[in-house]
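Lay summary

Proteins are chains of building blocks that fold into shapes. Our project writes down both the chain and a compact code for its shape. Here are two examples, one after the other.
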Amino acid sequence: MEYGGAVVGSGLLAGCFGDNGSEPTENTADTTYTATMEPVGTLECESVPQSFVGGWGAAADVMTALGQGEKIIAAEGPQFWFTGFYDKLPGVSVPDPDSLDRVLTEDWGVRKELLYELDPDLLATDPNRYIAYYGSDKDEVQEIHDTIAPFFGNVSRRKRGDGWPNWPNGESYPYYTIPEFVERYGELFQASERATALNEFYRTAQKEMRSRVPSESDKPTVAVLNARNNPETAEGFTVYNPDTGLEKTYGKKQYRDMEIVDAFDGQYDGQSGITIGYEGLLEADPDIIILHFAVNYRDWDGKDATQATVEELRSSSLGQKLTAVQEDNVFIGGTPYQGPIINLFQTEMLGKQLYPDEFGEWPGDVTDDQLPDIPAEEQLFDRDALAEIITGDN
């Protein structure tokens, strides 16, 4: 295993041939091959990983797009991996996230014993997340990496916070775009041809959708609210800044690509979001409200948290004064944990919600149990063509 050319550890990629005592899987090539992703650097492999532990959904979506989704055996936050869009792609299936083990405790500690028990070939996550969020120290991360499975992931959902640990060498490392993740995981899973086809499809579809965004004068104002937080469940509404300030981050990519006009522009004071009450919401009075995370929060601890927020907006005497509520322009929003498949669907969804005259109306109500089917003639990208790439039938 190498970090920027420096060999670390004594074995090859776990799941191919690791130093965790596991037997190597059947070799799929006559020679070793390499794959690279910062901060871990270059991994040298003898065979393709047969199992992996995911993070919060983005890497799992990339794996699904590469035809590797069935290999996920656990995740850090399986509840945030939204799989509802896969139902729209013929022949594409993945494990139910509810069936996956969660490798974190309730208070966000790493269940290291479970990781040993699962014995995955790969941890498809950034090791620095274990340090920054889950309370692991560098020695524990090194142990997990050396004795359980190597890490191969990169935090690029949003800007990394101050004091980010930058393991293993303390040096800052780049952010990756969705196509760059596809390319690197494609190398690791020996699916580079599929990755190339997928990225070509993805870039073409995204370019086409972006090219149809109306001019500034025809755009509504938009507020991006957390789908779960409202004055009845929290201190108020959480308003997200849709502009992350980093072009390569993917968590709010659809808002950037659809060029939304933020009703709260200039009010974040350097923060990713702010908390407001009805008065602040009424003062901005956005034309459209998008409930960010809504696809995740429709089933949250056995309750529909998204519907609760919608009902609060529609039943409150103050909420009823909002233009977006009066004109029925409160919409379901996507998950920030997105790879190429989820991002394509969520960009299409947002385009229809914001610009129905150009893209066609988004069908259904925000409180519907299932995502609506869009007639073929109104779809913004070819589902069958995408599915054929994913399933290897292209």
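And here is the second example, written the same way.
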Amino acid sequence: MASPLDDKTRSIIKACVPALEAHGLAITTEMYRRLLANPDIRDLFNISHQKDGEQPKALALAVLAYARNIDNLGAMAGAVERIAEKHVGLNILPEHYPYVADALLGAIAHVLGDAATPEIMDAWGKAYWFLAEILIGREEQIYVAHAAAPGGWVGWRPFRVSRRTVESETVTSFELAPVDGKPVMRHVPGQYLSFRLDVPGYGSERRNYSISSAPGSNAYRISVRRIDNGVVSDWLHDSVQEGTVLQVSAPAGDFTLGNPAPAPIVFLSAGSGLTPFISMLGALDAAAATGVRYIHTTRTPATEAFGPYIRDLAARGMLRADLFYSRATPQAAQDATGVTTHAGRMTPTWLAREIDRTATYYICGPDGFMRDAIATLKAGGVPESQIRFEFFGSAADATLVG
């Protein structure tokens, strides 16, 4: 267990908040520059998040939140759990933490210069290792649970693509079966798989993809949207065929459907944010749940993944769906029993009219979409405990940190 930080250390960390507000992004950018100079450490990261600046910005927000909450670290519990789950998916181990410590402390000294006094550096060293020990301890618990679970494993396990299915003009699903033919760990609806991929011309890449299949013991399914100039998504769509072997770590993530599931439930998604909800819907369907609300925004009917599945669930009375087409005007024939189509994006005004304060809301999609939805729900009186969200990649929006 991590030793509590002393009063002096916490006081110094709090005093650093203005400096982090002014220079936090410069510090984390320099930190990643140092980390990525080591090829062994570089392979642990999604490099695309470095190129677009998303990862340094997300970390800067996280470090700032840590400093602001140094006297009330219980407020960071959700963020710590998400980080631990992501680290386990990427197979981060205790021996990786000293590299991050050296890079972070070196970056603080480099950016702050003479302002980085020995006292400040000592305080940040203590604060880093305090948090690191918490993460290492939690990650060890998760690794042990994965190893003990039926069909579970630790590390990278080879899976073969057993089937490809085109879900829309932008989304393709890949069903994955373990090469060893043994059972797989039953995932919790909403979790994701992490992949270690060797992409020709780019080398080692890491990605996380939500599991879109209902829980089972034999295989998983992921559903991947092609992203413009996406290194990995283009490769998956263009080159990965049935029979391709991919390296996969055990299911991870804390954006999950409760057991028992809360009722009523509203799913809010945009783009490929629907994928964890397809898994959740599969579990709810198996449990004969009813009264689910499904609200989804996509570009056009041609980009709408899992449309037939949603319409089938609606026809059977399990859910009521609202589908928004941001770049098309729906035809009357596209409406169906329990399904209403809309032209344009889902707006805060529309959502505000539809709020059910007794419902639990699950939200997944681009950061801006989630930020607007969360703000609308809170303004409409939905308790924060009934608002759950998942983000792709790194949370580079202050609303989504913590």
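What can we say about the second shape? The chain has a mean pLDDT of 93.
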